[in-house]
Design goal:
Layout: E1 2-3, E2 5-7, E3 10-12, E4 19-24, E5 29-35, H1 39-52
Parallel strand pairs: 1-5
Antiparallel strand pairs: 2-3, 4-5
Amino acid sequence: MNLEHYIDGAHVPSLSGETFTSLEPATNRPALTVASGDAGDVDLAVRAALKAFT
């Protein structure tokens, strides 16, 4: 299962395309592939939030 960011009403991958694997704690097996955000992703999310409140 892949988990992307939810920004401005849409599921989107990270701008860098980077991901990391989240492990199931009980089995230590891979559970999810998660989008790895950086400052650019935060900027998009903040801009979307500001747009939503103006």
